[in-house]
Each structure stands twice: as structure tokens, then as C-alpha cells.
Design a protein that fits this description.
The chain is α/β, with parallel strands linked by helices. The protein has 7 helices and 9 strands; from the N terminus they run H-E-E-E-H-E-H-E-E-E-H-H-E-H-E-H. A 9-stranded mixed beta sheet has the order 3-1-2-4-5-6-7-8-9.
């Protein structure tokens, strides 16, 4: 996409804001979040359902300009499901071209082909407890590199055992970093930590920093 086509490309945007990255390898860094509108999934624990609808149509130029105004290095494109909007791919490339450290938070239910190789992909594998495990596109695992991450949000012990099986079967820890997180209000963080230690899993335990600091407030 270039020239007039590039200028005409638009995205439906729920919000653009500055916060601390609450998850993944870049946790704690000041980060601009570009939250795109719309998602084909309906996970039971979703905390961004306000992004399913609404939003405002914006040109790529407008989105890039707003990101630039914040003056920080890290940018996270999220949703909803950002890849549900095709121009997201061009946005990712343009942000990389400007020198940003760009991450993409995706459900993994859509094809990762076409995502700029400079982007850090954070792919969420849906567990049975999410209600959307049937939507997992496991062929996306072949598109991940050591720079990328796979995330499991776990709702109960059954989810944990399911994720542990997939971890071994797909050799996930050899592909990229693997993150295990407790679904808020469903699994006690200490319990998940103890399961990981007991099984000596090659995964990183993580809590959502932004929820610890600000709860479920939008724009945080």
C-alpha cells in the first residue's frame, strides 16, 4: 500500500493513550496504546468489550501523528482484535519505519502472515475456559520467532493442565517466550505460581500491572 491508497486507508479506533505496559516482556515501559475497534471473538474474561463496537474512523496519518505526539519509544497495537482490520498491517509497518519498538497483541485467531517482521507479536492462545479455544489458529505458531511471545490466560486448573499439554506438544518454549497469567477473579495468582514451580515449567508467570495500579479503568 502506498501513495493515494495509503492516504485513503482508515482504521476504526477506540482509543489512543499513554500508559505503562502492563503485560509481556516490555512490562513497565511507558507505552502508547492504539486500541482498534472490533473483535470476532467473545472470550468469557474479556476486559475490553467496550472496544467491540463504536470507535472513530481515522486515517493512518492521523493515528501515526497522535502516536508521535506522545514522544515515547514503545507502541502497542491492540484491540479488540487489531488484525480484523486489514490496514492494521500498514500501520504496524509505518510505526516500525519511524523507529518505534512496536508490539502487536492478537488473539491468534487470524493469520499472522503479512505482519512486519520487526513487530513483536504477542499471541494469546485461547484456553477452554475462555470459551473460544476452537478459534485457535495453531498454524500461526510457525510464524513466531524468538522475539515473539505466546500468552495463556488461565481460568482454572483444567486450563492450566490443557496449556501445559500444549506447551509440551508444540515445543512452545523452544519457539518463543511463553507467558502464563491468571484470569482475574478466577485463579488465585499464588496458586498459579505454585503450579508452575511444582511442574518446573519453562514459562514466565505474569500479572497485569495496569490492573494492579488502576483496576479495569479504560484508557489505562
Amino acid at each position: 500500500m502506498s501513495g493515494a491508497a495509503d492516504a485513503a486507508a482508515r482504521l476504526r479506533v477506540t482509543e489512543i493513550f499513554l500508559s505503562l505496559q502492563g503485560e509481556s516482556r516490555s512490562v513497565g515501559w511507558p507505552t502508547v496504546f492504539v486500541r482498534l475497534t472490533g473483535c470476532p471473538l467473545r472470550c468469557g474474561y474479556c476486559d475490553t468489550s467496550y472496544a467491540f463496537q463504536g470507535g472513530e474512523w481515522q486515517s493512518l496519518d492521523s493515528v501515526v501523528a497522535q502516536v508521535h505526539e506522545f514522544g515515547v519509544h514503545h507502541v502497542c497495537v491492540t484491540g479488540g482484535e487489531p488484525l480484523a482490520q486489514r490496514p492494521c498491517l500498514e500501520l504496524l509497518t509505518r510505526l516500525c519505519d519511524l523507529g518505534h519498538e512496536v508490539s502487536l497483541e492478537t488473539s491468534g485467531a487470524l493469520d499472522l502472515a503479512g505482519v512486519d517482521t520487526r513487530v513483536v507479536k504477542v499471541m494469546d492462545i485461547k484456553t477452554p475456559g475462555s470459551g473460544e479455544a476452537a478459534r485457535n489458529r495453531l498454524e500461526n505458531l510457525a510464524r513466531l520467532t524468538a522475539r515473539d511471545q505466546v500468552k495463556f490466560v488461565l481460568c482454572d486448573r483444567t486450563d492450566y493442565d490443557w496449556a501445559k499439554t500444549l506447551l509440551a506438544r508444540e515445543h512452545l518454549a523452544a519457539r518463543c517466550e511463553v507467558l502464563f497469567s491468571p484470569a482475574m477473579g478466577q485463579v488465585e495468582p499464588r496458586a498459579l505460581a505454585e503450579w508452575i514451580i511444582e511442574d518446573r515449567l519453562p514459562v514466565r508467570f505474569q500479572l497485569q500491572l495496569h490492573k494492579i495500579l488502576w483496576g479495569n479503568a479504560p484508557g489505562r
